[in-house]
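Design review, sub-item: ligand-bound model
Attendees: FS, YL, KQ
YL presented the inputs for the zinc ion complex:
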Amino acid sequence: MTDINFDCPHCQQNLEAPLEMAGDSLPCPTCGTLIQVPVKALKAERPRTAAPPPEEPEMSKSPKSRTAAALCCLFLGPLGIHRFYVGKIGSGVAQCLTIGGLGIWSLIDLIRVLTGSFSDKEGRPLQAW
Ligand SMILES: [Zn+2]
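KQ shared the predicted structure:
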């Protein structure tokens, strides 16, 4: 329990008051003047040095290999394997069940993989071969 240390403005007597007395008035035991206990200044907080923003992982493109996706799509496209590969499990299953949308869906995927507009489950386009 830290007490507030302050001087009586009237007689300069050094006084102490319990912390919860901050802001209250009390008579000085020495001279009897009613004095206000100063609100103890909070310890100056060290200005927080702005933490550098966390290194953002490369969000612009997928870490998945375009080559792998293209090969999966080319040979196993109707099974939706390339979608499983990039984490799109849901649509991969759907693609598998529809046999690649009767080949059309997987063909479109193949074209998108080859043109670099096919994206992984985070929506990042596969760009690296
Ligand atoms: Zn006093």
